[in-house]
User: What shape does this take?
Amino acid sequence: MAVRRPSLALRLGTRTLGVLLVNGPQASGRRRRVAILGSTGSIGVSTLKVIESLPERLEVFALCAHSRWEGLLQQARRTHPRYIALTDPRAADAMARQALPDGTQLLTDDAVGTMVRHPDVDVVLTAIVGAAGLAGTWLALDAGKTVAVANKETLVMAGPLVLDLARRKGARILPVDSEHSAIFQALHAGQPGEIERIVLTASGGPFRGRTRSELTNVTPAQALKHPTWNMGPKITIDSATLMNKALEMIEARWLFDLKPGQIQVIIHPESIIHSFVEFTDGSILAQLSPPDMCLPIQYALTYPERVSGPAKRLCWEELRSLNFQQPDLETFPALQLGYEVARRGGTCGAVLNAANEAAVGAFLEGNLPFLDIPRVCREVLDSHHYSERPTLSELHTLDRWSRQEVLRWITTMASSPNR
Ligand code: NAD
Ligand code: MG
Assistant: This one.
């Protein structure tokens, strides 16, 4: 019989976050079974690396991707999941004609729901990019699962509703975003009521130190060259505009139940310190490691235990200095949007998130200048009908509206004679 060990709970404000009973699967000797939503992306691939490095602790239960069926098939042949799924029906049709590994089933109807609700799933890792990630995260929380959330847009869009669902269903949310994982780890050193502030670190992206005028004509190829992290295209552009940090402020506000004034940002080009927690007595705790998502992913999957895994190690012999700068709010106005949306809450997160997704898409297609990404987000945010306590359905409606507004704005600007 499994020995019941105490549960480790971090009570954050009125919420309980990251509660994972230690007498779960691992303590009883069974491997934790993981469902990955977004397995073919940057986070998905790192998650598989972690799972395959810890075969005695973790196993792949289900994999879901959007359209890259060849990549998903390769992953399935390597890891033998029980289920796989593709959310793009044309890709699912193409995949259905291929030979699947023995024991693996391609789900089509209610695929994500079937995967995440399955009683054998211990952890769902949500690594779909953008607002599209909300549905799967929601289903997993609704099923009362432990959810390792990489998809920050879910929390930006609907943080209070998502956390309320987790509380009602007894589900657990564990952060995967490196800054939030760092905060979560540092918070173990104190009580929730003892937090003075958190300070999110930002690399500054590829355009750190540039002026606004130097950014007028930057191309997608230039913006996609991140100095420290290797990530999917959307988050890489978000890092170049610093919108990623804005989204992370909002994510932190809901996840850790903080007041907006308790969240600060500092530029740290080396990306070794992943964030700070300052406690009421003035003591500051940080989490350090080289920039490698394997570590926060592994921490979420093996929590609360720490084991040796595939994450890069800090080379102390090579370490010289860790630098900090204040963020340049004039060149990177997205940060200001983050502070504002974190403060106002309500419908603002969904509107900002959708406007940004549409703007980033337009920039990558060459239809929107780089500096217009935060500009159009500001316009759309300012023109929406604010409501303090929106329903999920209202947020979905506003998500669609914001995307249309961005397209309308781009069309209007393109035909403007002053452009
Ligand atoms: P990515 O573009 O590399 O991968 C996205 C994944 O989502 C792919 O597997 C793709 O098939 C799937 N996907 C895309 N659209 C979909 C849709 N409509 N429906 C279902 N699946 C869809 O992205 P990424 O860099 O891995 O980022 C994933 C998430 O993790 C984002 O929310 C990002 O902000 C967050 N995140 C990423 C990193 C990182 O280092 N990459 C770090 C922190 C947080
Ligand atoms: Mg991050």
